[in-house]
Amino acid sequence: MATHDQMPKYHELMNPLLQALHELGGSGSVEEISAKVSEMLDLPEEILSIPHDPERSSQTEVEYRLAWARTYLKKYGLIDNSERGVWVVVPKKRDIKNIDPKAVAKTVREQSRKEREAKQTVEESEEGLPEEAESWRTKLHHILIKDLSPDAFERLVKRMLRESGFVQVEVTGRTGDGGIDGKGIVRFGGILSFHVLFQCKKYQGSVSSGAIRDFRGALIGRADKGLFVTTGTFTRDAMREATRDGATPIDLMDGDQLADKLKELRLGVTTEMVESVDIDGEWFKNI
User: Dihedral of CA 65/70/73/75: which sign?
Assistant: First the structure.
């Protein structure tokens, strides 16, 4: 059985992460980076599927440690990220392909210490969350896992699909239906339409390739494609199975993607804009 001792530490992921970004052409999403690093290190499925903290997040332990690696490399000035979550190698540092992880960690910690002293703030432990982690995701994940019943979660997914443009959405889940929870039709440009069957799974872990195969078996002859929504994550093999050549395609939405979509649609997640007021002294002088 896989243990945390077999898992690479966050500083051991720094160089693979940097190399993955270079191989991806200098930029990549969190998902692309994670997949590339896992491939480069040939991490086994039992390591990739270990959850970090199922009570608070849908992240796996590998994803959590990669988040810390990204945070350190960003503070070191090697990589940066956009508001859309795309990570890039800083243009002026593109010639750097390899770094000393211990030197990076030492430099960033010293930098953080000076910043704390300057701001007179209480030192935070590394056992907290990496810089890019957002507390609203943790709160939402807890609500979806602990407070929502399976029926309520199905209704939430149904509402999300309707708000996303699906029509004729129905929750049809029943025993013996191959795990299918509902169906709907998505239209493009008022011309093309696709019949979609979906499965929604409240889960505190990683959905396996077997679950994807079972779901596909129930799709055959009944829909153009499938959609699998979970509060957890998907294993690498599950993602490969979902896009296997010659098979009915299945789109996957994990816990983080679900959170982003609920935020985008403002379904139980609201964003408050803080007003900033500035006084133009020159304007008053010239009145």
Answer: negative
Pinpoint the alpha helices (H) of the chain.
14-23, 30-41, 45-48, 61-75, 101-119, 135-142, 150-163, 209-219, 236-242, 255-265, 281-285
pTM score above 0.85: no
Residue-wise pLDDT for 25-49, tens only, equals: 988 888 889 989 999 999 998 898 8
Please name the residue that has the structure tokens 């807890």.
Answer: 142
From the list 85, 119, 199, 219, the residue with the least C-alpha distance to 153 is 199
Distance CA 254, CA 234 (A): 7
Residues 88-116 pLDDT 10s: 999 888 899 999 999 999 999 998 888 87
Q: Which strand (E) or helix (H) includes residue 1? A: none
Question: Contacts for 190-193 with beta carbons within 8 Å, 24 or more apart?
Answer: none
Mean pLDDT of 81-87: 79
Cα separation, 287 vs 281, in Å, equals 10
Q: Write the class of the CATH domain 140-265.
A: alpha beta
Q: Phi and psi (nearest 5°) for 20?
A: -65, -45
Distance from the Cα of residue 257 to its chain's centroid: 6
Token code pair at residue 44: 């086994």
Q: How many CB atoms lie within 10 A of CB 114?
A: 10
